[in-house]
C-alpha cells in the first residue's frame, strides 16, 4: 500500500554516493523516528521532505519505510525558510544571513530573488554574491522539478537519480530526444526498460528510434547471449518483428544505423560496430605478429629435447616433439588436444627446452608469462608446472576502474607467453591480450577446441585453428596413465559422436545410475556422504555440475539440498540475500570480476566467518585461495553457493569427483560440447545420474556454430587492414 511520510533527516545510516542508495532515519513532525530506505541523494537535515512508498518488515532491522519517490515540502514557515537557506544546499549563506533575507523579503523571498536577484543589494549583497545565490536557488529548484517530472513518468527514484547524475540539467531534453539512449549510456538499462520509458514519452513502435533500438538490441542479444558476431537482414527482421509485434519500416532504420556507423555492413552481414572493429583489430594484430620469425638451430633443439627427455624420464612422441619445435620456432603457435593428450606435458617441455636454449632460468629471470582465463585454471597451471601463473586479466594489470595497465602502448614485458584453456577466451579478452603483445614476443596458445566456446562473443580458438595460417599442432594420442581412464575414453567417444551402449557401463572411475528426480537427489547426497567418509573434501574435491539454475534439479535447489544436509551451521544465524542464505563454512562462488577486492568471476571460496562489524552490521568473510573478502548484505549479489555450479562456470577447473545429473528438464540446454566439457572436468571419478537415453541423445546435439569472421579474416593474410584511426574502444562506454 502506498503511503506518505514526512519529516527531516536525522542521520544517514548508509549512503552510496554513486547510485544514491540510502538508509536514513527521519524525524516526523510528531517526533517519531522512521527508518527510510531507498534511492535519494544527501538531503539537507534542515529541510522537511515528503517520502512516498510503503512500509516493509525487515528480518533483522524490523519495520522500515521503502521509498519510491520523495520531494521537498513546500517551505511554508519563516523558520523553515531560514533553515532551508542556511542549509548545505547554499554555499556561503549562514543562519544570520538567511534570517536577514527572510526578515526583509518575507515568505516569498525565493520567488522574488529568482525574479530579480539584484533586490539582494538591499541587504548588502554584492552583485557576485546575489548572482551566486540566484544560481544555486535555480539549480536546486531545477533538479527538483526534473525529479518531479521523472516521477510523473512513473520512473522510480533510483532511476531518476541515476539519470540526473548522468545528464544533470539536460536530463529531460536528452530523454525526450531519444529515450533509448538509456540503453547505451546507463548501466543496467536494457531494451525492455528503455522501451517502457519510451512509451511513456509517447514514442510508438513505428518510431524510427524504437526500431533502431530494437535492431541494436537484436544484435546485442545475438552477440552477448549466443556468441555470434554478425547476423543477416532476415534474422534482424524476424527478431525486430518479434519484439515490436508489428510490420514496420525496418529497412530505413537499418540503413540509418549503417550510415551512423553504429552497425557495420560487410558482405550482407550486419555487425555491431564495437564487435566488428574488435574482430578486425584482433585479426590485424595476429597477422602482424605472424610476420616475425625465430629461426632456431634445429639440430641443437633436437639435442636439447633428447636431453630434457632423459632429465624427465619421458619419451615424447613425434607429434609432441614437433609441438615443442614449432612453438620455439614461431612467433605464435597453437597446441590443441583433448584431455590426457599431453598439453601440459608439452608446455613443460617447451619451457625446459627454451631455458636451455637461451640459457635463462625462469625462476630467477622473469621472461615467462603463464596465463589462463580463470583463477582456478591458473592455479592448476602453477601447481603442475611449478612456476608462477596468473589470470590473463591480472597479467594485463586489470584494475578496479576497469582499465588495463598493459596494452599496445605498454606491452607485457615477458618474452615467452603461454596461455592455457584458450577455448574460454572471447574476442574482447583476446583483443586486450593481443594488444599487449609486441612483435618479438613468442606466444603459445593451448586449449581444447572441442570444449564449450567462450561465454562472451566469438570462437577465437576455433577460428584461429580453422584459419590454417597459425602453426597448429593437434595432439591426439592419449598417453599411458591417461589411457586407463574411462573418463577420457567416454569424453573422446562423446566428442567423436560415437557414444555406444558398452561405454555406459559402470567401471572403476565412471559410475552410471538411472533414476528419477527424487532418486537423483538422494544419490547426490549419498555419493557426497560416501566421498566425505573416504576423506574427500566438499570444498576442494567434489563438484556437482548442472546446466541450469532453476527447476527442482537446478543449481539453486541442489545447492540448498547439499547445504542443508552437510552444513551443520544452518542452525545458526546466516546472512541472506533474496532466497539464498549463506552460513559459516558454506562453499561459495564469486559471480563477477571484482579486481578491487582481488576476487574474480568463478573463484571458489569458503565462508570462514560470520560476524558483526563495529556498526553492528552483519557480514561474511570468505577465504579464497589468494585472499579473504568481506561481504555485507549488499555485496551478496556477487556470491552464490557452490556445492553445485553451472557447467559454464566449471570451465578451466578440474575436480577429483564430478557428479553430473542428466535429466529431461535440462534437455534444451544439453549439447555435445556441454556434456564433453562437464565430463572432462572429472579427474578421478565421474558419476552420471539420471536418464542415459537423454545422455545419448544430447551427445549428438551440436551447439549452433557461431557466426564469426576471424578465420576468414586471418586467412586473407596479405591484407592487413589499416583502420588505425578507429579503435574498437571508441565504441565502448
Ligand atoms: N610422451 C609421453 N609419454 C608418457 N606419458 C605421457 C606422455 N605425454 C603425456 N604423458 C602423460 O599423460 C598424462 C596426460 O598428459 P597431460 O596432463 O600433459 O595432458 P593434458 O592434455 O594437459 O590433459 P588435461 O587437459 O586433462 O590436463 C600425464 O600423466 C602425462 O604424464
From TrEMBL:
It is an enzyme of class 5 (isomerase). DNA-dependent ATPase and ATP-dependent 5'-3' DNA helicase. Has no activity on blunt DNA or DNA with 3'-overhangs, requires at least 10 bases of 5'-ssDNA for helicase activity. It comes from Alteracholeplasma palmae (strain ATCC 49389 / J233). Residues 139-230 form the ATP-dependent RecD2 DNA helicase-like helix-hairpin-helix domain. GO terms for molecular function: 5'-3' DNA helicase activity; ATP binding; ATP hydrolysis activity; DNA binding; exonuclease activity; single-stranded DNA helicase activity. Residues 641-688 form the UvrD-like helicase C-terminal domain. One of its GO terms (cellular component) is exodeoxyribonuclease V complex. Its EC number is 5.6.2.3. This is ATP-dependent RecD2 DNA helicase. Residues 3-72 form the ATP-dependent RecD2 DNA helicase OB-fold domain. Belongs to the RecD family. RecD2 subfamily. NCBIfam families: recD_rel. SUPFAM superfamilies: P-loop containing nucleoside triphosphate hydrolases. HAMAP family: RecD2. Keywords: ATP-binding, DNA-binding, Exonuclease, Helicase, Hydrolase, Isomerase, Nuclease, Nucleotide-binding. ATP binds at residues 340-344. It catalyses: ATP + H2O = ADP + phosphate + H(+). Residues 558-623 form the ATP-dependent RecD2 DNA helicase SH3 domain. GO terms for biological process: DNA recombination.
